[in-house]
Design a protein that fits this description.
Layout: H1 3-12, E1 25-29, E2 36-40, E3 44-45, E4 53-58, E5 61-68, H2 74-87, E6 91-102, E7 105-116, E8 119-130, E9 133-142, H3 146-157, E10 170-176, E11 187-190, E12 195-198, E13 202-205, E14 215-221, E15 228-234, H4 241-255, E16 260-269, E17 272-285, E18 288-300, E19 305-313, H5 317-328
Antiparallel strand pairs: 1-2, 3-4, 4-5, 5-9, 6-7, 6-10, 7-8, 8-9, 11-12, 13-14, 14-15, 15-19, 16-17, 17-18, 18-19
């Protein structure tokens, strides 16, 4: 999920408690004709940096809408909203998923409860299919505001429709049973220079644009929201484990300048020699700071030196270390 969306999630976690009355609304129509929505009266669209992401603000609250091209499954659209929460380090529980027809369009709706940076929060999420494309709706509010705001925000979600369409209401509402995913098996993975095995819970993601050419793979760890693994390979005349470690540390600290070293050692795992380092620090995003930790392990593979950089929420450091050491043992 885009860094900007993550920053928005951090921002709404700090919004002040502001009361409101009534259900007077204003209609917003997307200039590209993708959707229309009724919002609380007086709300404004924040300046956009992406024509697919809309941030509406008013009365101390925020609604985020993202248009997702080519996604016409309301279940997948709802997962996009969940991914936004997880990528910001949010742990949450669902109060139930509702499937429905919304103004003639397939849709899903769910309320999540959880916490971020010590604040007790609720997230109101929905996905709506708009012909071949779709959009998801996300609003995060303090948990104590649920009684005052839930109906108003849900009413806005229920007004989503295609431009020129009328609000016809909600029909065919059914509770959806969402079973927990079955535990996965360890997953072999290989690039042109290195192979390794990922423990259950890791899944590969597209590398960000502009990644260094040595970066061979990016992964996310579902059991710990916000946890990533970057596999970086170095080779060439004069390359050593020490130089690979220096390069990995530079990668970490450029990405998160606030990281500082807290642990460093050389160790043996069986017959394998590795360098092991831990960095921690505060990362700022949209006015809120979150403590992050990065664990880097460096070892020699058959064709190169390999850095495994595991980064996540600082309170999860013990598990970040465990995962890094489990993976580095499998490097070939």
């Amino acid at each position: 999920m885009k860094l900007g969306i993550r920053s928005l999630v951090w921002t709404v976690a700090l919004l002040s408690v502001v009361g409101s009355a009534g259900f007077a609304q204003d209609t917003y129509e997307d200039p590209q004709g993708r959707f229309a929505i009724d919002l609380p009266k007086g709300w404004q669209l924040a300046p956009q940096t992406d024509d697919k992401v809309f941030v509406f603000q008013g009365e101390g609250k925020t609604v985020i809408i993202e248009c997702v091209l080519g996604m016409n499954d309301p279940a997948e659209l709802l997962k996009k909203a969940e991914t936004t929460l997880r990528s910001a380090g949010w742990g949450f529980d669902s109060s139930g998923v509702m499937e429905m027809t919304l103004n003639g369009l397939p849709a899903r709706w769910c309320v999540y409860k959880g916490a971020l940076s010590g604040a007790s929060l609720a997230a109101l999420c929905g996905g709506v299919v708009m012909e071949e494309n779709g959009l998801y709706f996300l609003s995060i509010i303090p948990a104590q505001d649920m009684a005052k705001w839930k109906d108003k925000l849900e009413k806005s979600f229920q007004s989503i429709r295609g431009q020129g369409q009328k609000v016809t209401g909600v029909e065919s509402v059914n509770a959806v049973s969402v079973s927990a995913p079955a535990p996965s098996n360890p997953t072999p993975w290989a690039s042109d220079l290195v192979s390794l095995t990922l423990p259950p819970g890791w899944s590969e993601k597209p590398k960000p644009r502009g990644s260094e050419k040595e970066a061979k793979g990016l992964f996310m760890y579902d059991p710990l929201p916000g946890t990533t693994l970057m596999v970086v390979c170095y080779k060439g005349m004069g390359m050593t484990m020490s130089k690979a470690l220096e390069a990995g540390i530079k990668t970490m600290t450029i990405t998160v300048p606030g990281l500082k070293p807290v642990e460093a050692q050389e160790m043996k795992l069986g017959k394998r020699k590795i360098y092991f380092a831990v960095y921690k620090g505060m990362a700022a995003g949209a006015g809120i700071e979150v403590e992050l930790a990065s664990v880097i392990t460096v070892t020699k593979a058959d064709k190169c030196y390999v850095n495994l950089i595991v980064t996540g929420i600082g309170s999860n450091l013990a598990e970040l270390k465990n995962q890094a050491l489990e993976i580095v043992k499998t490097v070939k």
